[in-house]
Amino acid sequence: MKIINASTEILTPITGDEIRRIEYVGRRTCYKSGDKITDDSAKKFVENLIKNEDEEVLKHSSLSVKFICDLGMSHELIDLELIRHHLTSFAQVSTKYCNYNKDKFENELTFIKPIFLEERSDSYEYWENAMADAEIYYLSMLDSGCTPQEARSVLPNSIKTEVVMTANYREWRDFFWLKAARKTGPAHPQMEELTVPLLKEVVNKIPVVFDDIYRSLLSQQADNDPAKDGYQPTLQPGA
User: Cys-Cys with 214: which of 13, 135, 203, 207 at CB 3.0–4.6 Å?
Assistant: First the structure.
């Protein structure tokens, strides 16, 4: 049995031309002002789009991210986001076909450590024992002749999965507002464990597009008392 932390990985190569592409589409097609494009005009153009809530042009750039999370969070990512974000696409590891008793999975199950449980606490020990039992029974079912899709019936929410989410920048902005910047209230602690560091990474790599969301998150951290439980991100501007 292996226990790891949740994490994310940006799959889309980021070259620095992302906001230039947005400006090109907007100025050349929408506003017929291509003559105003300069080497450093893209940042201001995108800033004005966001300021004026004219974000349709942002849909012409997209981002793919792999979420390494537990099965429970994958349900929230896919089920809830499909309801809200119809232009979002997903791909996920299939427990129907993946046999974790194979060498490529090191003949063991991998679980995501719950961020809300403190190691060496009674609650963490109960969780860890439950995961160990799940692994025993899953592997035993496979050994008894069950197929992976039959044996997966004993897999818990904490089993590690991988979800690739692809969306345009406009959809990602909505996603980050809801799942990182708490626009409608805090997300699940395990969701913020994924989305807050991802937002920080995206802001550092892609200029302007997500800056206002990040500033809102930092402002909340400055205004609010530290969370009494769950995930409380600690970020530094420009870090």
Answer: 203
pLDDT 10s digits, 67-115: 999 999 998 888 765 556 567 889 999 999 999 999 999 999 999 999 9
CATH number at residue 78: 3.30.1360.170
Torsion sign across C-alpha atoms 153, 157, 159, 161: positive
Identify whether 222 is part of a domain.
yes
CA torsion, ordered 36, 206, 171, 37, to nearest 10 deg: 10
Residue 236 has a CB neighbour count (10 Å cut-off) of 7
Structural domain range at position 6 = 1-11+68-226
Count of domains for the chain: 1
28 found inside a domain: no
Give this prediction's pTM. 0.86
Contacts of range 12-20, beta carbons closer than 8 Å, 24 or more positions apart: 12/62, 12/63, 12/64, 12/65, 14/205, 14/206, 18/61, 18/169, 18/206, 18/209, 19/43, 19/45, 19/46, 19/61, 19/206, 19/207, 19/208, 19/209
pLDDT digits (tens, 9 = 90+) for 5-48: 999 999 999 987 888 888 878 766 776 766 777 888 888 888 98
